[in-house]
Amino acid sequence: MTNTRKLRAATQLVHGGINRSQFGETSEALFLTQGFVYDSSEAAEARFKGEEPGFIYSRYANPTTDMFEKRMCMLEGAEDARATASGMAAVTAALLCQLRAGDHVVSARALFGSCRWVVEQLMPKYGIETSFVDGRDLSAWEKAVRPNTKVFFLESPTNPTLEVVDIAAVARLADQAGAKLVVDNVFATPILQKPLELGAHVVAYSATKHIDGQGRCLGGVVLSDKDWIDEHLHDYFRHTGPGMSPFNAWVLMKGLETLPLRVGQQTASAGKIADFLADRQEVARVIYPGRDDHPQAEICKKQMAGGSTMVAFEFKGGKDAAFRFQNALEIIRISNNLGDAKSLITHPATTTHKNLTDEARAELSIGDGLVRMSLGIEDVQDLIEDIDNALSAI
Ligand SMILES: *Cc1c(COP(=O)(O)O)cnc(C)c1O
Question: What domains lie within the chain, and their CATH numbers?
Fold first, then answer.
C-alpha cells in the first residue's frame, strides 16, 4: 500500500500502515517481542547509529505498534505519532515533553478529571503554572496569555456537558501567542473532528474509548508534525517508557477497522435519542452538539462532521430522578466508561466529577440531575424503548 494517503478514511483504516511479514498474513501480525536480533555486529552498530532502518527495543518502537501509529497518522492527517499505554499517558506526555519550569499554560477549565489533575496538581510541582479559562470565551484565552505562555490546552466537546470550543479560533490565538495548542480529541473521535486541520499543533487520544470501542484494552496516542515529535516527544517517549504494549496495539488497530461504522451508528443513535429526550417533560434540558438548540450549534457545524456519540441531559427531579432512571434501565448499563459498543450511562456529580468542589461543579454546570449517556451500536429502537420504560419509573 503505497498510495494509502489518497484513499478515503474507511479504506485506510482497513489497509493502512501494514508491516506484512514474510508469511503474507491477511490479518496484521502481533509481534509480541521485547527485542530484536541483528545479523552482525555491523548491522547492530548501523541500526543504533540510525543509518539502517529497523527496530531496536519495544520501548522505542515495535512493528505492531508501528502499524497502529501509521494508521492513526493517516486518519488524522498527521506526520508522526507515538502510541501510549493509556489516554492519560498520552496527555501527560504531550504536555510535559514540551514544558519546563517557568513556563505557563492556558487551559480550558472543562477537562476530563485526570487531565485536570495533571494540569492543576502535577505540573505546579515542576514549576509549570496554568491559568484556567472558560474555553468558549475567546477573549478569556487572549487575556490569560503571558510572555512565558508555551501551551494552550483544551478538549471539545467537553466532558460531561458537551460544551463546544471553537478550535480554529483558539488555534489562531495560540499562534499569535507563540504557543502550541494541544487538543484532547477523545469525545469528538477522529472520525467527527480533525484538530490538526483546524490549526491545532498536537492532538492526543485515549484509544481506550471509541478506537477500541469494544471495552477491552487501554491505550492512547499523541500525533503532530515530525519536527515537534523529533524535538519534544521522541526522547521523552524513549526514556520515560509510556509506550503501548504490542498486544494492545494489535487489538486497537483492529478496532480502527470498524471505527467509522461504529461512530456512524453511535452518532445517528445519539441524535435520535437527543430528539426523543427533548420532548419529554421529565427532562429539563438536553445537551447535544448536533441539535440546533445547542448554544454552540454553529461552531459544531463548522468543525465537526456529526453531532457526537454522547448525549447529556438533566432531570427536573435532580439526583433522585437521575438515580431512579439509571436503576430502571435494562439495556443501557451504568458505567463511567464511554465509546463502547454497549450503551453506557453515568451520573457525573457522584462519579467522574465527585472530586470537584461544589463551586467548580457549579461553574461547569454539572447539576445533581445531570446524566451523560454514551451511545453504543445496539438497535436504536431498543434503546429508545429502554429509555422510555425507565422514564416512567421516575
Ligand atoms: C478517558 C479519557 C482520558 C483518559 O484516557 P485513559 O485511556 O482512561 O487513560 C482523557 N481524556 C478524555 C476526554 C477521556 O475521555
Answer: 4-30+62-257 (3.40.640.10), 260-391 (3.90.1150.10)
